[in-house]
Design brief:
The protein is mainly alpha-helical and about 80 residues long. It has one domain. Helix 1 packs antiparallel against helix 2 and helix 2 runs antiparallel to helix 3.
Length: about 80
């Protein structure tokens, strides 16, 4: 797969997940279900940006896990705050 095609697929997934969040808001969803959808989409989007656009897929393993661990800590804090 060419790099251009992969970039397009990642971009398309980012747009789709953004529209999912928009739809959740437009439907007036709230509660744990909406939180799970939005944070799940945020996690996937963040991982896509980290691995593809920040070029972390070529980094040593230690450096790959730092932004992922930070992301999990932040999303975990949001979940704890929401409860």
């Amino acid at each position: 797969m060419t790099e251009t095609r992969l970039t397009f697929i990642v971009w398309f997934l980012l747009i789709t997940l953004t529209l999912l969040g928009y739809t959740v808001g437009q439907l007036g969803m709230s509660g744990t279900g909406a939180l799970a959808i939005l944070l799940g989409a945020a996690l996937i989007k963040s991982q896509l940006v980290i691995s593809h656009f920040m070029e972390m897929k070529h980094a040593p393993s230690f450096w790959k896990w730092i932004p992922s661990a930070w992301l999990i800590v932040v999303l975990g804090a949001i979940i704890l705050t929401y409860q």
